[in-house]
Design brief:
Elements lengths: L26 E5 L4 H12 L3 E6 L2 H11 L4 E4 H7 L2 E4 L6 H7 L8 E4 L4 E4 L2 E4 L7 H8 L4 E4 L6 H5 L8 E7 L2 H12 L4 E5 L6 H18 L11
Parallel strand pairs: 1-2, 1-4, 2-3, 4-5, 5-8, 9-10
Antiparallel strand pairs: 6-7, 8-9
Helix pairs in contact: 4-5
Amino acid sequence: MTSTDSGSTPKPPAKDPWELPDVSDLTVGVLGGTGDQGRGLAYRLARAGQKVIIGSRAAERAEAAAAELGLGVEGADNAGCARRSDIVIIAVPWEGHAKTLESLKDELAGKLVVDCVNPLGFDKKGAYALKPEEGSAAEQAAALLPGSRVTAAFHHLSAVLLQDPAVEQIDTDVMVLGEVRADTDIVQALAARIPGMRGVFAGRLRNAHQVESLVANLISVNRRYKAHAGLRVTDV
């Protein structure tokens, strides 16, 4: 007797993990968009055709940075950026991470939040990873933003390469973490908008600490080899 004959329902075929949604119509906000990492991400996404809004504590500063980037990028204060965006990338310095998110809890409610902050310390031996009380920057964001859909991604990208207009594509993988697969699919698709990049699902937010921490190793690689190293995941 077959499984169908016995009355059980056949399992649907497994979804292709590379079948990702169209995100081209979504507006992306970048909080901390006047810093090197945020500015670089804003530039690359806008260059790929994404609608981008830069956020800063001072609207004037964000507007000035947006004007320098061109490509239709707009500037606003952090609250305005969060309200007007479908996806909000958190690219603020670690020292201001908690305070910034606490102040934007209402504006970020219902939004897909992508945290790319790396908690790092520096001393004479170089960069080293810090471990927040919550476990990671992404988990801190999830704790502070219970009304948001928090994911983690874009940790291992060189700000130098992101901002260099002579660089046509950035050959690297983006580790994407989150609790809801539909959300991580959106972030993977957003990463794939940038030529050379690929978003790779890398687990739930409880695994974000080691992803954030790996940046300390990449800083050591870059200093030793005078490089702008990224990551590639093999066999996927």
